[in-house]
Amino acid sequence: MTSHKNPASADNGTTSGPTAAVETPDLRTQPAFGIIEKQAPGIHIGIVGNYADTDETRMLLTPEACGMLTSAGIKISMEEGAGVDISFSDETYAEYGVKIVSREEALKCNTVLSYTPLRQKDVEKMTSGATLLCMMERTLFDKQTIQALLSKKITCGCLDNMYSSQDITIFADIVAEIDGRGAIMYAQESLSYLGGGKGVLLAGVAGLNPCEVIIIGNGMEAIAAANAAAAAGAKVVLMDNDVSSIQIARQSCDPRVELVAIHPRVLTNRVKSADVIITCPTTRPFEFPKSLSSSIKDSVYVIDLNESHPSISVPRTVTMALSNVLVYFFNEMAIKENFRGMVITNPGVQNGIVTFDGKLTDKLIGSYTGMPSIDIRVMISSTN
Description:
384 residues; alpha/beta; Rossmann fold; 2 domains; 8-stranded mixed β-sheet; 6-stranded parallel β-sheet; 14 strands
């Protein structure tokens, strides 16, 4: 059994006639579409790189996205070498108006961007009253880190917990979709000869059946994995322990995906013939029965998306996708003049706030750390 836990340039000349070249606008000098053209002197974004002792590779802004923001008057500084994980050099970022600085200088900006939450020592280097935007991760369940955020009165917002105006967790959904699709990429690689597998395709060919892929769970990861596997030609079954959730998932699933409710006998029969098993968060609590381990093929590929994040293997894709959203996110922030104005007026943003005005506003983190928390909506209503 195999398992995985973590693993254009434009022509400046002109010609006449029907074959004349069309000059491509330069994002480094043109104002971004959808971005306000007035200056936003109050916003200075500091981008910091990932910690070297982790597997994290993903970032939040590409050079092109930075160019769209700097053309709107938003200042951006970036830690030297931060873009190496997504194969972008400091020079490329600098071409789009980004100032390359030390990590300490980037941390002094009034809005700090880091894919993973900053650790205590880095939080202590931030400017008091600044904003930290990141993704939710276990670092925020460290009591000393939270105390540092509170002491410096840092407003910490987790993008993946925020909702869009359409009540969609857009940042979380983007990463989840890439994780699901990436799981199938991992599976095909593992089944191949070069990946140490039997040397088989997920798809079937004339005279041969396709591989069987079982996905246990629901949500964006599960649906993305199911659709990717079906597109690759595999026989796909998506299982969950809530029938109403299965009915909703059917609307987003490829017609070739079979949707089945988790039942002990059905699960046992499906697992016996599976070539790939992918587990994701289920609608209701579920633990894969240990008794089924003996029924699984020795050559089966298993990946648990509760623990693994295949998107770390395609960090440039992740960063490009998130950048598309963040450009408009910072557009709204510029209109509101700062992040605080966004928090006060946007309930979807409020949902992702961990600390605000020196108070812990995330109930789950408060419960885990034993620290008192307050509902941010109560805080905001009391100040209005």
